[in-house]
Amino acid sequence: MKTKELELYLNGLLEAPRFKDYCPNGLQVQGRPEITHIVTGVTASAALLDAAIEAGADAILVHHGYFWRGEDPRVVGQKHGRLRRLLVSDINLFAYHLPLDSHPELGNNAQLGRELGLQPNGRFGDDQLGWTGTLPQRMTLRQLGEHVAGVLGREPLVLGNPDRSVYSVGWCTGGAQGYFDGAVAAGVDVYLSGEASEQTTHLALESGVGYIGAGHHATERYGIRAVGEHLAQQFGLHHTFIDIPNPV
C-alpha cells in the first residue's frame, strides 16, 4: 500500500481534520513509499521504535506521537535519538491523538468499554470524548475495581466508598481526570480514567461519585490495536501490535 494512500485513508477513517489537537495528526515522519508491515503501539518511544525496526516494520502507528504544543522545537537529545532511528531506518510514523480517542468503534474509549463489558448510552465533554454507559449488573465500587484490575492486568487507584453500589459509569481514557466534573454532572455512579490529580480525591469524596484511575497506558492500548487489525483486514497489511509496558 502506498504511504500517501494509507495517510488519506486514516485521516478519513478517524476524521482527523475536525479536531483541534495538541499535536499534528497523521503522517508525522515520512519513510519509505510502500507499506506492507505496520506496527502499532501506544507511544512512539525509543523502545517501541527499536522493537518495530527489529520486526521489519515499514510504518509505525501510535496514539502518542511527536511535536506536542509548547515542546522545545530543537532536534536534540531524546528527540534527536527517536527521529534518527526513524530516518535511518526509513520507517513512516503515523500518530493520531484525539481522533483515536473519539472514534465510535475503533477508538480508545469504545474499545476500553468493550473490554470492560460496559454498555454505552451517551457522550459528554469537549468533542464528546467522554462516554457514559452501564455495567452488566450492579456491583460495589470495590468489585468494579477488582474487575478492572483483572481485565487490564494492573491494580487501579480506587477513590470513594468501596461498598457503594454502582451501575452507571462514565469513562475517558488517558489523562482525562479533568472530565470528572462532567461525569458527575452526567449523573454517573463512578468515573474511570487513566490518571488522577490532587483534587480528584476531594471531588470523589465530596460528590459521592467513585473514581477509578486505571492507568494512562493501560486504558489506551486497545484503540490503536483495533485500528491496526482493521487495516490488516481492509488492505491485507501485515500487522503487529507491540505493547511496551508502562506502569503509569
From TrEMBL:
UniProt xrefs under Pfam families: DUF34_NIF3
In terms of Gene3D superfamilies, this protein maps to: NIF3 (NGG1p interacting factor 3)-like
Q: Which domain of life is it from?
A: Bacteria
Residue positions binding a divalent metal cation 2: H64
Q: Does the keyword ATP-binding apply?
A: no
Q: Which UniProt keywords apply?
A: Metal-binding
Q: Which residues bind a divalent metal cation 1 per the record?
A: H63, D101, H216, E220
Question: Which terms in the Gene Ontology molecular function aspect does this entry carry?
Answer: metal ion binding
Can you list the GO cellular component terms from the UniProt entry? cytoplasm
Q: Would you identify the family this protein belongs to, as annotated?
A: Belongs to the GTP cyclohydrolase I type 2/NIF3 family.
Q: Which PANTHER family match?
A: GTP CYCLOHYDROLASE 1 TYPE 2 HOMOLOG, NGG1 INTERACTING FACTOR 3
Describe the protein's quaternary organization and the partners it interacts with: Homohexamer.
Name this polypeptide is given: GTP cyclohydrolase 1 type 2 homolog
